[in-house]
């Protein structure tokens, strides 16, 4: 309802017909409503439709706390944050309550006192669902006080006694009461700190130091973990694992289109990168992930392909600034510079030390060849090859503008067909995209040994010609 029409007191809230629902019921009802209406349940999540999301939906419908288990860069954090979209957009709370007590059923000492004193005049505030999700990275220095709570020395100094429950400073978990609390990299949490979550997951309450206090909580707990963390950096203690209702395995995109979709959705591109180059980078990412030279246990994050696309676009923008080429559009010559910048994102096997750049370069070329064969393998490129038979020599490189590339080749019958096969729509044909398509065809012909290529030592100039 509009902000001005929302109830501001307990009496007005009752009169409005508002119904109090536990957070699990709220999520279940909203998820079912989205299912029935056909709305997207988890917007922005790519490649999990037939695998992870059905398991997640079953866990949420069952009201289970859950662990997302998977290698780095599989979208676990994004998925946890998306679950918060299943909460009601606005929910009433007791105004000023640290733990978001519902006005109908306050649980903290302060709110119970105010409820007894004010009755239907109890002030009501409204919280947006974005404020009902909190997240903690499980760093080794995380304490029980951070998660559950501790004595607040300021409140004690104000004159309250140590036994007074109102001297408690609540941690992140109770402050997310009536919401979703997420823990990233749960195994990194010290085992003695994990113990503090046992009551939250089973008895649904918390205990703080020596206080005679068992505060009931209404919170959904979601955690993420890497399978290797169970044996390398830490582990989830057995009693805690037993209390989670569901363990859901995530994975990298299974289909090439999903890999491209992740890069297209997540990359912040400084210049346009044509679809066929995004496909090259998606294949490149998958080849690196599957390479025996790469440590499979560490995984190759989706951020690998995203960073590759962003670096490719940046290379095109650099060329545009130096040469005056407009608009800036990425070409094949912008792909090799990504290799050096991506080395730090991959864990190689020990016996491959010193060959890291060579391995990535080989896998990048393989990705280009496969994309060329997929897109242009059945295309008639005789017009281009005949020009090389006549002695054509083409100089390219990351500082050669596109118009210069087109001028060297001259009129080329079939260039529009090449662009169409590479996914360039007829209305989008521009000289910059034509140059990108032409250079891709040249690189594909070279890698298929139809023409030759010489490169300078620095790699910034390449020359295509006949052997």
3D structure, described in words:
Helix 12 packs across helix 13 (about 275-290) and helix 16 crosses helix 20. Strand 8 (about 205) and strand 9 form a beta hairpin. The longest helix has 22 residues, at about 300-325. Helices cover about 40% and strands about 10% of the residues. The mean pLDDT is about 90. It folds into two domains: about 5-250, P-loop containing nucleotide triphosphate hydrolases (Rossmann fold, 3-Layer(aba) Sandwich); about 255-465, no CATH class. The protein is an alpha/beta fold and about 475 residues long. A five-stranded parallel β-sheet has the order 4-7-10-1-11. A three-stranded antiparallel β-sheet has the order 12-14-13. It is built from 20 helices and 14 strands.
């Amino acid at each position: 309802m509009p902000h001005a029409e929302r109830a501001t007191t307990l009496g007005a809230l009752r009169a409005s017909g508002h119904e109090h629902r536990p957070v699990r019921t709220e999520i279940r009802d909203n998820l079912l409503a989205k299912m029935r209406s056909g709305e997207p349940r988890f917007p922005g999540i790519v490649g999990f439709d037939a695998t992870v999301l059905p398991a997640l939906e079953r866990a949420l419908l069952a009201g289970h706390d859950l662990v997302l288990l998977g290698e780095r860069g599989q979208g676990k954090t994004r998925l946890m944050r998306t679950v918060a979209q299943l909460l009601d957009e606005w929910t009433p709370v007791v105004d000023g309550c640290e733990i978001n007590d519902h006005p109908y059923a306050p649980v903290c000492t302060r709110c119970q006192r105010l409820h007894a004193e004010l009755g239907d005049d109890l002030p009501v505030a409204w919280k947006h669902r974005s404020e009902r999700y909190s997240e903690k990275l499980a760093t080794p220095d995380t304490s029980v006080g951070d998660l559950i709570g501790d004595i607040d020395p300021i409140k004690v100094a104000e004159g309250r006694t140590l036994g007074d429950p109102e001297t408690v400073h609540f941690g992140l978990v109770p402050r997310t009461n009536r919401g979703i609390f997420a823990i990233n990299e749960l195994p990194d949490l010290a085992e003695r700190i994990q113990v503090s979550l046992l009551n939250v997951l089973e008895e649904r309450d918390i205990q703080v130091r020596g206080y005679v206090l068992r505060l009931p909580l209404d919170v959904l707990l979601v955690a993420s973990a890497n399978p290797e963390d169970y044996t390398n950096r830490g582990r989830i203690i057995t009693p805690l694992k037993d209390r989670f209702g569901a363990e859901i395995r995530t994975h990298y995109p299974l289909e090439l289109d999903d890999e491209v979709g992740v890069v297209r959705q997540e990359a912040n591109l400084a210049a346009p990168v044509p679809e066929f180059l995004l496909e090259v980078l998606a294949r490149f990412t998958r080849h690196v992930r599957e390479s025996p030279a790469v440590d499979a246990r560490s995984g190759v994050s989706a951020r690998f392909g995203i960073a590759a696309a962003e670096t490719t676009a940046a290379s095109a923008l650099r060329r545009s600034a130096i040469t005056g080429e407009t608009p800036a559009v990425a070409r094949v010559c912008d792909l090799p510079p990504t290799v050096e910048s991506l080395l730090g994102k991959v864990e190689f096997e020990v016996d491959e030390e010193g060959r890291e750049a060579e391995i990535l370069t080989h896998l990048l070329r393989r990705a280009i060849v496969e994309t060329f064969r997929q897109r242009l393998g059945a295309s008639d490129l005789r017009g281009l090859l005949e020009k090389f038979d006549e002695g054509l020599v083409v100089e390219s490189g990351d500082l050669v503008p596109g118009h210069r590339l087109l001028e060297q080749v001259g009129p080329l019958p079939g260039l529009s067909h090449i662009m169409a096969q590479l996914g360039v729509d007829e209305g989008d044909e521009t000289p910059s995209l034509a140059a990108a398509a032409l250079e891709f065809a040249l690189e594909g012909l070279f890698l298929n040994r139809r023409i030759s290529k010489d490169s300078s030592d620095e790699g910034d100039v390449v020359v295509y010609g006949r052997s």
